[in-house]
């Protein structure tokens, strides 16, 4: 008789969101104007002219959402803190009413028996800081550390799981290379500095946590296995650049003490020389690495596409509504790659999920079979990594709720729970019910035959 595979008893099962994507009430209770609030209200930036003014109205409905989490059987909830609610101008004057929201949120989660996992920076921050040079300003690292330090003290005893940054690569790539996110103006020469200061800020925040915090703190990165479209040397070189750019730019300095060689090739004359002592700081040890996994990419050489000089080659395979390839085994690849190349630190899958064009709720039910299959196949891949000795401690589905999908607006739905706009009505999808059974069975249902 074979026993069904299952996840460890202490494996942490959760779902994730971020502040600007769900909260709404962007200016409530004395909050400052955030970069995202300002950006989304600039015409032409977001699909359909969408913005986060209401979003999921979570700022006002958080208690109901925690009730939903209980119904889903979640053990943990990963959310982010909106910096501009705490420090409306970015630094200096603290706004107690904004802070109070997160105290209430953390208390309510703890009372519900759900572990609060707070991310300090998931892309929204005070617009005033962009006006002072943003992440390209060397002092931004200290701005972040000061903000982080305040929160460690304020939420001490309430939150024990912290992440510094969510996907610094996206902040730099979308914000400073593409301009699809704020500050919104492509500025290649600033990008290496923004990346460097994000890393310094992360390290300074970890140091502040060691001085004045309790629990565990980590960094969250997005990873994606890269493949070359052919064995041609040009495509192989494009692969090396693409992989260095997305997967190694942030992790090489954190774990190995320096940037990938390829960065100088990618940025050419815009690649700076950084002070040697910064690399010592950036290697500050922390407690876990969070990995956000969605897809893979296959690349070929494309000299016209700066700065990386690659292009994606779309595969004949299932794609999500984001046009991202569904590639479950890539999750295992990323987890084992981190273990082999960098570290045996505990790992979490801090985001994984898919947008699909779900049908609206019919009689209180949303049928989303493709999301159920996506979850099942990725969780099997996560289990395969565990079986190979990866120290994977937990998994967070992206996302608890349909929400504001950044430049794509509300058109892309990643939620386990459907949100109807503008009423905000929440309806758990079939995937939410499935995830509940996964949690209850510690994964055993992942290996059951498909039901009709
Ligand atoms: C995350 O970022 C964010 O943390 C979260 O806020 C967001 O809502 C969620 O994902 C969904 O987007 O175009 O095929 O080359 C996602 C990071 C990095 C994933 C780039 C997709 C490009 C795939 N993304 N990647 S492709």
TrEMBL record:
Binding site for substrate: 21, 122, 166, 294, 398, 405-406
EC number annotated for this UniProt entry: 3.2.1.21
Coiled coil: none
Catalyzed chemical reaction(s): Hydrolysis of terminal, non-reducing beta-D-glucosyl residues with release of beta-D-glucose
A GO-annotated cellular component: cytosol
GO biological process: one example: cellulose catabolic process
SUPFAM superfamilies in the record: (Trans)glycosidases
Protein family: Belongs to the glycosyl hydrolase 1 family.
Protein's recorded name: Beta-glucosidase
Organism of derivation: Methylomagnum ishizawai
Lineage, top ranks: Bacteria, Pseudomonadati, Pseudomonadota, Gammaproteobacteria, Methylococcales
């Amino acid at each position: 008789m074979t026993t069904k595979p299952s996840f460890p008893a202490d494996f942490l099962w959760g779902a994730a969101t971020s502040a600007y994507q769900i909260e709404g009430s962007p200016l409530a209770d004395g909050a400052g104007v955030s970069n995202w609030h300002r950006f989304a209200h600039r015409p032409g930036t977001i699909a359909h002219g969408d913005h986060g003014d209401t979003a999921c109205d979570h700022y006002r409905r958080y208690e109901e959402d925690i009730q939903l989490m209980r119904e889903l059987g979640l053990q943990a909830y990963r959310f982010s803190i909106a910096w501009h609610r705490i420090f409306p101008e970015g630094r200096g004057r603290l706004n107690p009413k904004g802070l109070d929201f997160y105290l209430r949120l953390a208390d309510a989660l703890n009372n519900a028996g759900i572990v609060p996992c707070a991310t300090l920076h998931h892309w929204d921050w005070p617009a005033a800081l962009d006006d002072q040079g943003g992440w390209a300003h060397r002092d931004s690292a200290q701005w972040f550390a000061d903000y982080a330090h305040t929160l460690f003290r304020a939420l001490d005893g309430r939150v024990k799981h912290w992440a510094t940054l969510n996907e610094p690569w996206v902040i730099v790539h979308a914000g400073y290379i593409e301009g699809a996110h704020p500050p919104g103006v492509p500025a290649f020469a600033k990008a290496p500095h923004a990346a460097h200061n994000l890393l310094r800020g992360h390290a300074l925040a970890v140091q502040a946590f060691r001085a004045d915090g309790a629990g565990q703190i980590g960094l969250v990165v997005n990873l994606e296995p890269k493949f070359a479209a052919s064995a041609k040397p040009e495509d192989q070189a494009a692969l090396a650049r693409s992989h260095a750019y997305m997967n190694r730019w942030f992790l090489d300095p954190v774990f190995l003490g320096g940037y990938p060689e390829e960065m100088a090739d990618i940025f050419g004359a815009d690649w700076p020389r950084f002070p040697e002592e910064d690399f010592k700081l950036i290697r500050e040890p922390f407690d876990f690495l969070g990995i956000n996994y969605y897809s893979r990419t296959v690349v070929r050489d494309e000299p016209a596409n700066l700065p990386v000089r690659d292009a994606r080659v779309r595969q004949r395979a299932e794609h999500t509504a984001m046009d991202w390839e569904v590639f479950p085994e890539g999750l295992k690849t990323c987890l084992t790659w981190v273990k082999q190349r960098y570290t045996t630190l505990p790992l979490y899958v801090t985001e994984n999920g898919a947008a699909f064009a779900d049908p609206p709720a019919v009689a209180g039910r949303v049928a989303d079979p493709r999301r159920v299959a996506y979850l099942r196949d990725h969780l099997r891949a996560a289990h395969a990594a565990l079986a190979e000795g990866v120290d994977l401690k937990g998994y967070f589905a992206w996302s608890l709720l349909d929400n504001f999908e950044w430049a794509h607006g509300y058109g892309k739905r990643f939620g386990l729970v459907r949100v109807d706009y503008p009423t905000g009505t929440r309806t758990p999808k079939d995937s939410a019910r499935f995830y509940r059974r996964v949690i209850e069975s510690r994964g055993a249902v992942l290996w059951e035959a498909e039901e009709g």
